[in-house]
Automatic annotation (TrEMBL):
Residues 429-515 form the AMP-binding enzyme C-terminal domain. Residues 17-372 form the AMP-dependent synthetase/ligase domain. It comes from Streptomyces hiroshimensis. It holds the Pfam family AMP-binding_C. Gene3D superfamilies: 3.30.300.30, N-terminal domain of ligase-like. InterPro entries: AA_adenyl_dom, AMP-bd_C, AMP-bd_C_sf, AMP-binding_CS, AMP-dep_synth/lig_dom, ANL_N_sf. It comes from the Bacteria. This is Amino acid adenylation domain-containing protein. SUPFAM superfamilies: Acetyl-CoA synthetase-like.
Length: 529
């Protein structure tokens, strides 16, 4: 088993890369089309870009925006910013300008690292831009190690990840180097890593699965294969890439895996993976069985992990048994918590619930993040101490129960937060955007399952105007209404938060507290279907 590299204690993620550059100097670290960097070359590229960052006056402790396409530059740029003692803040160029401007203001950004695609990001025009391109993937001569210990330490913030917010604005979570190193220390020994592993670098750096994807690979000396845009959007291209590079492992969202499994079965592609690890959503057992049917030879180990941004990516691990894959229980098994990242299932009064009873998951230990940027009240509400239990704990809002052996089974969300294609989404943020449209009097977003078993967003809207009015939601075909709705929402919401269906109603159902009854609404839509 190849786990975290031995040696002196590592204080920062930059130390992890430096250590692997010595231990695996000539081993391929990053493959992206014609680019092929060894670990020693990757380290030199990071050194060179970190020197550029320092040369423009960026100081240790600064937060710096990062707006680059997913792929090789995301790894080099984020590692360089951390080596310069800074925290990187992902800025997705496809997101609306209002969202990006909020992040820029809230994080106090002055500088952004951007590639050609990132230069066009709306809302970052006022930032000083430090441009990166393919030249930053060409290793120069070694300039000698930088004294990183003077720039960052374990308690320094490594990145600020913005998640969806129920108040209509995203929340920035500050995660330290120590948080990520704690995850690696506890999680890496749980995976049966071979000496030479290869896995795709495919998740956007604004999605915190990318943190595991990049830094678990660096820690064990794996080879990262950057997934080009065409393969990100086309499961056939993705399957071809996995086959060509002889990928050994997948870290993947179940909805993405579903499409890949369909292609693999239909095309008869043989991908002899050693491991598939699911994250971000409830398991899709049908896709797993489809994959198993189509693949001769040894089966991969099927694993499921659970975690959230505020407790640093992953907090539990579960290797699925054949019986569990066959039974496909309604509650998703997520296994047991890490040694230094304990999980509790508590009731509304923060008291333990017995096995089989549903409660809220609280995560404690070394992976609990600092809190939310500029939101002290919300930080105090969600990051708390528990009587008789050491350290800080985070209230996840996720519901689960334990079995008699203490293993966790995920049930769902306590509030209106959902996960769609791996993205954590507050339905309240979509409600907020819908109700801001001038022609909508009331609205609510709900999640429905498609015939293919995937989760999809539906917008339920009540028009502000009567029938016959030019702006009435009662006029026009549903397709035209949906097109209009998505176009207007695209000004304030990213693509993954845009509804795929719209339903027109006279009014929304209310519960006894006078609030929108989202469950009743969802049940009504199910009956209509």
């Amino acid at each position: 088993m190849n786990t975290a590299p031995p040696g002196p204690p590592l204080g920062t993620l930059s130390d992890v890369l430096r250590h692997s550059a010595r231990r695996f100097a000539e081993r391929p670290a990053l493959v992206a089309g014609p680019v092929r960097l060894s670990y020693a070359e990757l380290d030199r590229c990071v050194d060179a870009l970190a020197a550029r960052v320092r040369a423009v006056g960026i100081r240790p402790g600064d937060r710096v925006g990062m707006s680059v396409a997913r792929g090789p530059l995301a790894l080099v740029a984020s590692a360089a910013l951390m080596r310069a003692g800074c925290a990187y803040v992902p800025l997705d160029a496809s997101h609306p300008s209002r969202r990006l401007r909020h992040i820029v203001r809230n994080a106090g950004l002055q500088v952004v690292l951007c590639d050609e695609s990132g230069r066009a990001a709306p809302g970052i025009e006022a930032l000083t831009a430090l441009h990166v391109d393919g030249d930053d993937l060409v290793p120069g001569p070694s300039a000698g190690a930088v004294a990183e210990d003077t720039l960052a330490g374990p308690s320094s913030v490594a990145y600020v990840m913005y998640t969806s917010g129920s108040t209509g604005v995203p929340k920035g979570v500050e995660v330290t180097h120590a948080n990520v190193l704690a995850m690696l220390a506890d999680a890496l020994p749980l995976f049966d890593f071979a000496d030479r592993e290869v896995w795709p670098l495919q998740h956007a750096h604004g999605f915190d699965v990318s943190v595991w994807e990049m830094w678990a690979a660096v820690a064990i000396g794996a080879t990262l294969v950057a997934v080009p845009r065409a393969a990100q959007q086309d499961p056939e291209c993705l399957a071809e890439l996995l086959l060509r590079h002889r990928v050994t492992r997948l870290h993947i969202v179940p909805s993405v895996f579903h499409h890949l499994a369909e292609v693999v079965e239909e095309e008869g592609v043989n991908l002899p993976l050693r491991n598939v690890t699911f994250c971000g959503e409830a398991l899709n057992y049908r896709a797993i069985r489809s994959w198993t049917r189509s693949q001769p030879g040894a089966r991969p180990a099927w694993c499921n992990v659970y975690g959230i941004t505020e407790s640093t990516v992953y907090n539990t691990f579960k290797q699925l048994t054949d019986e569990e894959l066959t039974r496909a229980a309604s509650a998703t098994p997520i296994g047991t918590a890490y040694d230094h990242s304990p999980a509790l299932v508590l009731d509304e009064e923060l008291r333990p619930v017995p096995p089989g009873r549903t409660g809220e998951i609280l995560i404690g230990g070394r992976q609990v993040a600092r809190g939310y940027v500029g939101m002290p009240e919300l930080t105090a509400e969600r990051f708390l101490t528990l009587p008789g239990r050491p350290g800080r704990w985070y209230r996840t809002g996720d519901l689960a129960h334990t079995d008699e052996a203490g293993r966790l089974h995920y049930v769902g969300r306590q509030d209106d937060q959902v996960k769609i294609r791996g993205f954590r989404i507050e339905l309240g943020e979509i409600d907020h955007a819908l109700r801001a449209l001038p022609w909508i009097a009331d609205a609510a977003a709900v999640v429905q399952n498609t015939p293919r078993g995937e989760s999809a967003l539906t917008a339920c809207v009540v028009s502000r105007y009567g029938a016959g009015h030019p702006d009435s939601a009662q006029d026009g075909r549903d397709e035209a209404l949906l097109g209009r709705l998505r176009k207007e929402l695209a000004a304030v919401l990213p693509d993954h938060m845009l509804p795929g269906r719209v339903v027109r109603l006279d009014r929304l159902p209310l519960n006894t507290n006078g609030k929108t009854d989202r469950r009743a609404l969802s049940d009504d839509l199910s009956r209509r279907n």
